[in-house]
Amino acid sequence: MAAFSISSFRSALAGGVHANLFKFSLTFEDTISAVTDADANFVTNFSALGKSGAIPAMTLGIIEVPFRGRRAKIPGDRSFGEWTATFINTADQKFRAGFEAWATYIASNNYDETDGVISEKSDTDYKCTIQIDQLGDDGEALRTYKLISAFPTEISAIDLSYDTVDAIEEFSVTFQYSYFELE
Description:
Distance between the termini: 35 Å
Oligomer: single chain
Number of domains: 1
Mean pLDDT: 84
């Protein structure tokens, strides 16, 4: 067994990955006019105004099979939780308005006035791919996660207070997605 030393620890760490080096990006599966009407630069601002987020979580389910008084555990299906990111609010409010328009679009049904039929939207009408890049010190992506078929499910409140000074407004958006891919 090798003796522990700080130099062996530092060499194994290899500098580590800095939690503040990341980039978000967004690609819509189809054009969502409600979002693009709210702010023509919504997709660009998604990356620029992203303040914090997380590497997505994954859970592997367990199936317990009873066998002679004991339980054998076998792996089940993978599930993917929600993903939340925090964004800086802009003075013109257009960036938040883009999220609000997107959520409103998802919640509304397509109503055909000629025959009065409400039709459901297809998945590509409102979903996107969110890319999360972990960056190295040189700005190059070390690892990339792509959240497939993502859409917002919650836009947080923005707290207002006379007591708050020297702070910029921020809000969080929670997304659901089907799965993620690694690159």
